[in-house]
Amino acid sequence: MAQIELDNIQRIFQLGDSEVHALQDIQLRIDAGDYVSVMGPSGSGKSTLLNLLGLLDRPNAGHYRLEGRDVTTLSADEQARVRRERIGFVFQSFHLVPRLTAEENIALPLLLAGIPPHDRKARVAQALDDFGLAKRGDHRPDQLSGGQRQRVAIARATIMQPAMLLADEPTGNLDRATGEEVTSLLETLNGRGVTLIVVTHDPHMGQRAHRQIRMEDGRIDSDSQRPTP
Amino acid sequence: MMRSRDILGFATRAATAYPMRTGLMMLAMAIGVAAVVLLTALGDGARRYVVREFSALGSSLIIVLPGRTETGGVGAGSFVTNTPRDLTVDDAAALLRAGGVTRVAPLVLGNSEIAYRGKLREVMVIGTTRAFADIRNYRLGQGRFLPEEDWRRGSAVAVIGATLHQELFGAGPALGKMIRVGDRRYRVIGVLAASGSGLGMNADELVIVPVAAAQALFNAASLFRIFAEARDRDAVPAAKTQILDILKARHDGEEDVTLITQDAVLGTFDRILGALTLAVAGIAAISLAVAGILVMNVMLVAITQRTSEIGLLKALGATGGIIRLVFLTEAALLSIAGAFAGLLLGHLGAWGLRLLFPALPAYPPDWAIAAGLGTAIVTGVLFGVMPARHAATLDPVDALSKR
Ligand SMILES: Nc1ncnc2c1ncn2[C@@H]1O[C@H](COP(=O)(O)OP(=O)(O)O)[C@@H](O)[C@H]1O
Ligand SMILES: [Mg+2]
Q1: Do both B213 and B123 map to the same domain?
Q2: Residue whose CA is closest, atom 14 of ligand 1?
Q3: In this complex, is the C-beta atom of B2 within 8 Å of any C-beta atom belonging to chain A?
Q4: What is the pLDDT of residues B76-98, one digit of tens each?
Q5: Same domain for B203 and B129
């Protein structure tokens, strides 16, 4: 059984009188621990797909089974719980809370999950260490470089030890070298077993994924796998 | 589920991160609460002042005034009387026969001029008898009060208030000196001890002469009032009946006088000023409602500014309930802080009032403090509900795409 199973997924946006078919008849299986890149022209539905996978959005039709459970029919609160416990997001624009320090930003998911302060402290300290941010814990986002900010965001996305990481153009706001760095960090996490799904514009980055999906007009245009060595 | 301490901490961080917005909201709340506290302090202070002054009159006092009025206390009709028969010195003397009455003092009142060695000033003259000093609890600073004598005789002696003494004689001796009041001359036989204020009549600025002397001075046969004192507080009702009976008999069977007792006057003033305080508190509370609306707007602006943060929280697994709670907590925190700042401000203002008007016990009543704080916090939270619900229902994808 695949970790992610999408069947006949439709996502239609109403734009005034016209309908935009952002996703049409998506059929997709992704195995636990896989490394998938999603590429395609702007407006082809990559972000919409990722939002659906992350339960931030609901399809108009079709079924989404996550780890064997149909999550399309869950209540909003149950979906929030799944996001909290199973899914980590990494965004192009980092989305750090500006008034909070790196430490506090990383601790946010733990806060929302009601983890006691003592455990929180230990886990955040460990994460800061793991992501090379040990000396930056009390810095606010505007005191960090772009790469550091994205590392904080990734630390935050993984602090709950989710089953999958969804990254929408995570290197889009970073220079090439820093982007490279962030990508290898994500790959390291994938190496430890987290399913990694990355939307990217950069063909070079896309090539690095084990499985590459190309989207076009809301459909999956091609889906290729590098043979496992 | 998120712990309540963490919700509180998160909301506090959010509130303190935007000092301008937070300050504005707290100020609005603070002004509202301060207005309630200050205005009720003023109203209640006035009430207490009046009550205290009336109590100083003595609780077994019965004041007789000419003319019949409908109500016992001070109401709309109290001062409107229909062609009353005059009260006379003989009427007053007759009241001494009443068993429940221990002291009686007739009272003539008028304005005149007092002069001593070229110093001249306007003065209020009271014509009365010896008993008046006991009824009003006057204490003498020097000399003695009016002599015990035939009420119709009126020897040319006067007792003056402490302020008058100061103004006319300075530090020099006054006893035995001759003063002129109107066109008559009186020998000063006593000076009242300084007493501060007294409702309507400031004893420190009075000249007191025998009743007959005052009648001659003002060329009047009638009395302004008769002051009678019952044996004690419990004897007041009986004494009133007796007084009425005696005067009715003397006035051809007509009941054409009004008796005022301190209780009735006090009760009326107490009610009027109490109602006034309440009204003022109500008006001040309106400013709290205005503050509530401001809270709502400020919170809505805050939510617009923090839309992408709300989207993030949702992506991180916050439920709508948590988002609602976080923003509601923030509104409540600001309201509470504002309310207590207002309480402090109000107390400061009341303190200033007391400094400015030492006679006025301008303390805000407990109920006003409770009501002010309560209204502030309740409006803050109530008006915070709508924005918080709005935040909770934001679409996470839309919210995340906002900058
Ligand atoms: N909230 C929305 N309302 C209307 N149209 C939308 C909305 N979100 C996405 N779309 C449309 O859906 C299509 C796919 O968008 P998106 O998934 O963001 O593309 P990509 O991420 O591949 O650039 C686009 O045509 C876009 O205009
Ligand atoms: Mg996109």
Answers
A1: yes
A2: A45
A3: yes
A4: 444 444 566 889 999 999 999 88
A5: yes
Same domain, B397 and B326: yes
Q: How far apart are CA B13 and CA B3, in angstroms?
A: 15
Provide the residue range defining the domain that includes B137: 108-224
Task: Indicate the residue among B195, B224, B253 that finishes a domain.
Answer: B224
Average pLDDT over residues B54-58: 67
Q: How far is CA A228 from CA A73, A128, A190, in A?
A: 35, 33, 15
Sheet holding A18-30, edge to edge: A18-30, A4-15, A61-66, A69-70
Query: How does residue B138 score in pLDDT terms, banded at 50, 70 and 90?
Result: confident
Specify whether B220 is located in the same domain as B120.
yes
Residues B355 and B294 in one domain: yes
Give residue B300's pLDDT.
87
Dihedral pair phi/psi, residue A39, rounded to 5° = -125, 175
Write B174-179 long-range contacts (CB < 8 A, 24+).
B174/B142, B175/B142, B175/B143, B177/B116, B179/B114, B179/B115, B179/B116, B179/B207
Q: Inter-chain contact B3–A114, Cβ cutoff 8 Å?
A: yes
Chain A residue closest in CA terms to B8: A111
Domain count, chain B: 2
The number of residues making up chain A comes to: 229
Domain-embedded: residue B262: no
Q: Is B316 an 8 Å CB contact of chain A?
A: yes
Q: How far is the CA of A223 from the centre of ligand 2 (A)?
A: 19
> Shortest CB distance from B318 goes to which of A57, A104, A112?
A112
Is ipTM over 0.85? Answer: yes
CA of A28 to the centre of ligand 1 (A): 19
**Domains of chain A by start residue, with CATH:** 4-225 (3.40.50.300)
Q: Are A152 and A105 in contact (CB under 8 A)?
A: yes
Q: Side chain identity at B153, as an amino acid letter?
A: R
> For residue B403, what pLDDT is reported?
67
**Do the chains contact at A83 and B2, CB–CB below 8 Å?**
no
pLDDT band at B58 (very low <50, low <70, confident <90, very high): low
- Closest to A84 in 3D by CA, of A61, A59, A63, A56: A56
What is the reported pLDDT for B246? 93
A contact residues 156-175, partner B, Cβ 8 Å cutoff: 156, 160
Three-class DSSP category at A103: helix
Structure confidence by residue, pLDDT tens digits, B304-314: 989 999 999 99
